[in-house]
Amino acid sequence: MTKNFAQNDSTDSLGRNRENTEDRLLKAAMKVFSKRGYHGASVAEIARSARANVSLINRYFGGKEGLFLALVEGVIVEKQSGKLTYPPYPALADEVLAYLKFRYREDKKLRDFMRLCVGEIATNDELRGKALSSLRYGQDDNFQERLIDLQHSGTIKQDADLEKLFRMISLISFSASFVERELVGMPERATESVFETFSTMIEREFGSSAA
Prior knowledge:
By secondary structure, the protein is mainly α.
């Protein structure tokens, strides 16, 4: 007997609520987009993988593009507000080095999808505008909070521009994950050596001599 997938907005064919259905669709979309690319992925395959009716993609996300943008937003929001899994360090150079290594490992877990994001957003002006319109550029709330704490403790100069400091760190992080690793194929140890040198330079530039 064929199952009836016609459900209201709060339930799907498996009796799950809308939030759980969206979560399954997002997880399935992550796998399919990462494997086949944006243009090669189909909503039918995503729906099959999620065990959901394909119509729910249109209902919940507005179609394939909306689903992709929801994934991009989710990844960026996680980078902006996700928990840092290493303890805070009292020295600026140590904190910066630990953060760069942490972000490098985390980006590696999503390397296929992140490669796709960079490619699509870099070449599609309309998609880039939609992806970035509601997101804060370059934010990482927990790491910025640590930088603020280091400034309050006197480890970072009181007149240091923390926004500039974070942008510098973000640029190095991005370059390591997507230029050195994906484009150049730089060995991880060589990248870590750059992190170490950069962290020392940051200490000299932004660290307080009184710390």
